[in-house]
Design brief:
By secondary structure, the protein is an alpha/beta fold. Helix content is 42%, strand content 23%. The chain has a single domain, classed as 3-Layer(aba) Sandwich (Rossmann fold). The protein contains 4 helices and 4 strands, in the order βααβαβαβ. A 4-stranded parallel beta sheet has the order 3-2-1-4, with helices on both faces. The protein starts with a strand and ends with a strand. The mean pLDDT is 86.
Length: 77
Amino acid sequence: MKEVVWGIIGCGNVTEVKSGPAFNLAKNSTLLAVMRRDKDKAKDYAERHNVAEYYDSAEAILLFLLIFQSLLTKLYL
């Protein structure tokens, strides 16, 4: 099975314990990038959840994911 790569726009409290950690725990699944309006909070979230990329605007995360779409099998936001 090919890997599914995820991006989260709005990584707040709900994603802390529910969806966020699950993306990296599921087989063939990786949380690649997160976005939060406060860049410091986005960075903190990314560091704590081993997420490679973090952004403070929806446009920036979408552009990143689109540029690297050749690496993506499916994109769920």
